Amino acid sequence: MWRVKRKKWAEIARERMLILLSLAHDEALSHNFERARRYVFLARKIGMKYNVSLPRKFKRNVCKKCCSFLIPGYNAVYRLKRKKITILCKNCGRRMRVPYK
Fold this sequence. Notes:
By secondary structure, the chain is of the alpha+beta class. It contains 3 helices and 3 strands; from the N terminus they run αααβββ. It has a single domain, classed as Up-down Bundle (Single alpha-helices involved in coiled-coils or other helix-helix interfaces), CATH 1.20.5.
């Protein structure tokens, strides 16, 4: 019984996270970064509560330190070095390194 409820809760949480992250993307494109940060913060909070990770397509676009939605050229710098993508958040200065596939 508990597993069935947990699956339903996780599915609902995943849907809500997708909605919030797509809203954050739209707000970041319209240069409203504070509202986008709030949407990302709420999505991460829902994910932590129900033990659901961020969707893969949004995982690289979110800074884990300051919860800002990263848009290349506005608040993020993307560099390709030595088989890695280096993403620099301009808000907090955190570097994220992601290997090539």
